[in-house]
Amino acid sequence: MDEKEHIQRWRLILGSESQSRFESMGGVSLTQGQDLMDQALAAIYSRRESGGFGSGRGAGNGPSNPQISKWLGDVRSLFDKELVTVIQGDAMTRCGLKQLLFEPELLDNLEPDVSLASTILMLKEQIPQRSKESVRAFIKKIVEEINKLLEQDIRRAVTASLNKRKHSPIPSAAAIDYKMTISRNLKNYNKELGTIVPEHFYFFDRTSTTAANKWTVILDIDQSGSMGESVIYSSIVSCILASMSSLNTRIVAFDTNIVDLTEKSDDPVDLLFGFQLGGGTNIEKSLAYCEQFVENPSKTLFFLISDLEEGGNRAGMLRRLQEMKESGVTVICLLALADGGKPYYDAQMAQKIAAMEIPCFACNPQMLPTLLERALKGQDLKQFEKEFQKRK
Fold this sequence. Notes:
By secondary structure, the chain is an alpha/beta fold. The protein contains 16 helices and twelve strands. A hairpin with a 4-residue loop joins strand 2 and strand 3. The longest helix is centred in the middle third of the chain and has 30 residues, at 132-161. The model is unreliable at 47-51 and 54-66 (pLDDT under 50).
């Protein structure tokens, strides 16, 4: 970056109020594109004389505002995607645009953003009828983006961990392992017949795919007010897992009450709208509910996804987690993510859970497939936690 570009960037950062000072130092002119950026930023960042949204003449004048829709479109075309989400968030908090959040014109121009989606879900009871389809379309965009990021890796992780390569002495034409049978019998190639004459056949063990031997994955998801981003990621992961016939997946949401959302797992958007963000927290009560789904402890993977701000029986919560672990269940506590992926949780409670040798950490969504694979394979999750901390 040369000196001129450096000065132009500082001019954009400091705003039009600084123009006279830059001129006194020799002057600086913005390019046409930078001038458009300056106008877009002036709409929200303390530039009230500009007539932007911060002046009070934008967001407060009624439900329909073409000026704001145009501004959103300009922002998306002028800035990188990462900056767009920051600017949108600031516009909502600084300029009162939240009251216009459910306007179809705005939703069509908003860049998909997990933080914004969690705000929408928290306010979903206030969605006017005219905006419901636009809101669903906006949430669906985010779901599709996260799904693209995670689905393939999660499916690969689960498939790799269920040990489909385990062999059985019981013959079954449907379960023959052709690759191993051929490779182990290459020495028995018969030149006269022009084919391999196997001495021994190898068969996959299909008993692991029967209902009694399936893994059960239980996702116990805190839906209190601080859990917005975690709920979105958890819902999408839940739906991916629920779509895999090799797993039994249960999806439970809780605050001070409990809602079983397993039946909504066919559609992640429907599942998300099944959450009621904003209540209190009773983890102990949800653990008691989830215990009924543990039929084969050694084949059960239990995720508690929470900020651990327990409003119920804290001692009872710890006792139930301990009992679940001691019964043979693989118990993992995933801490809440907020503000773009930063952990948010009760540190004292997290330490107590970790002291019971239950993995307890904030895991970014990209690491979930690896975590799943290691958990289903019965590998050391403490080692995974150490590796994860090094990567941060």
